[in-house]
Design a protein that fits this description.
The longest helix is centred in the C-terminal third of the chain and has 32 residues. Helix 2 packs antiparallel against helix 16 and helix 13 crosses helix 14. The strands form three sheets. An eight-stranded parallel sheet has the order 5-12-11-10-9-8-7-6. Strands 1-2 form a two-stranded antiparallel sheet. By secondary structure, the chain is α/β, with parallel strands linked by helices. The chain has one domain: TIM Barrel (Alpha-Beta Barrel), CATH 3.20.20. It is globular. The structure holds flavin mononucleotide. Keywords: Oxidoreductase.
Amino acid sequence: MTLTRNNDLLLQNITPDESFPVSFKELEAAAKEKMPAGAFGYIQSGAGGEETLRKNVSSFSKYSIVPRFLNDVSTLDTSVKLFGHTYPSPLLIAPVGMQKIAHEEGEIATAKAAATLGIPFIQSTVSGFSIEEVAEATGDSPKWFQLYWSSTNDEIGYSMVKRAEEAGFEAIVLTVDTVMMGWREEDVRNQYSPLKLGFGKANYETDPVFLSSIPTNDFDSIIQGILDNVYHPTLSWAKVMELKKRTSLPILLKGILHPEDAKLAIENGIDGIIVSNHGGRQLDGVITSIDALPAIVEAVGGEIPVLLDSGVRRGTDVVKALALGADAVLIGRPFVYGLAVDGQKGVEKVLENILQEMKVSISLSGVSALKDLRNLLTTNTPKAF
Ligand SMILES: Cc1cc2nc3c(=O)[nH]c(=O)nc-3n(C[C@H](O)[C@H](O)[C@H](O)COP(=O)(O)O)c2cc1C
């Protein structure tokens, strides 16, 4: 429970030396200045005609906050409990691969920034630093591991999950919307693949099962092995159930958009869902997360946590997602741009700004505990299904 003191926020932000970009637009522009075109394009762009990329952001404005007044909002509790852990805010860092293309300190800088705020860092399978390196750099701050299933050998995935468990990670996020790579025209235009350049190899080149599955352990062989494995058209519910048996960590499925898949997740003993369209990078023309959320929340009926990402740009987006029933929200591109602009400090600044706007917006909505957002906010909700 923190006392909301608006004056502090103003004193902190309006200072002579504050030059960090404030809005998402400015942040994106500043990141573009810092990066080569191929790397920036890889981060910024979406699949196909980028319909989903655009709608991810515009969909949020379909929902309006209807605030209540004359409630005492001098205190605010933003903490959330997920899988037995209490986190200070409902924010998590979305798994984003190959962060060294944004900044040489990549995932380590991001994980350290997240640690300063107690925000769980979700590490991607295709990271520039290994599970163990991230754990070593960040001690016991909260960390989750995102798994891309390995298509040639299920044991590679089990091995990575075991390593994450041993390194103290608190949950496994299995991404289910990447059976193949989305059709990304910007990368074709720029002839750019960070995977081929080796930016995502750290967890593979340190994995004994992966290494023993490729003919030699040189760079080309490792990259070919990753390309052979990282997309996984054979992923199925049966494999998910097998993974469940191999770990004691909670498993979340990332990329769920249909309420029937949410129900199947519960039937198969899954511990949580992340409603996501991968930031519009996979199937273009797909429903936005915020539009898919209400029907999924209804289908899940409070049995397991429902998280959301894709298109979250500011604090009020977080408020809307929570009001529509999300338990927590993942931040994606905004933190990557913060990383590109100013490394760890840049990520911290982006997260702080989102958190501050979120807190002020919750208080201005007349609410002092997250759970009350659901009852007190009305939304002009179109039914997705
Ligand atoms: C550059 C980039 C790399 C990503 N890499 C991964 C990844 O390795 N694993 C994964 O599950 N999702 C990955 N994602 C998707 C994010 O986890 C998240 O779903 C997405 O960024 C949300 O959309 P937003 O950034 O527009 O808010 C990536 C997204 C971006 C922008």
